[in-house]
Amino acid sequence: MSAGLKSKLHLKADPTLGDFQKYVADMVKERGFDKETVPEIFMLFLEECGEMAKAARKTQDIKFDSNSKTPHLDHEIADVFIYLLDICNQFDIDLEKAFRDKEEINMVRSWQ
After folding, report:
1. Which of 5, 11, 84, 112 has most Cβ atoms within 10 angstroms of its Cβ?
2. Which CATH number fits the domain that encloses residue 29?
3. What is the Cα–Cα distance from 18 to 96, expressed in whole angstroms?
């Protein structure tokens, strides 16, 4: 998308997980990220996981470099979610279905 052009992306007020997944697919195309490879997306995902961990660490009074920028935990979690949905889209995985299928397995497991 060129600078100055208005985005055509829209996420409804009460989105389902599938709506988020579709939004990310459209966003990736609109912003020109649709040529990224699966390994590139995984590296970006892991980078965002690290940033999320750093932001979470700062909320727990664990030592950190005071000169580093103060990340917003909620923003970092959102970035991780975006990349997770992008990865699901790359593999044609319906994350809601995968979640429900996996929970059916977990519900009958014995947790010690």
Report:
1. 84
2. 1.10.287.1080
3. 7
Q: 10 pLDDT exceeds 90? A: yes
Output the six-digit token pair for 13: 């007020």
Q: How large is the average pLDDT for residues 10-32?
A: 96
Host domain of residue 36: 18-106
Is residue 64 scored above 80 in pLDDT? no
- CA-to-CA distance for 47 and 58, rounded, in angstroms? 17
Whether residue 3 lies inside any domain: the answer is no
Q: Is 40 part of any domain?
A: yes
How remote is the C-alpha of 57 from its chain's centroid? 19
Rounded CA-CA distance 81/24 in Å is 10
* Contact between residue 83 and residue 41 where contact means Cβ atoms under 8 Å apart: yes
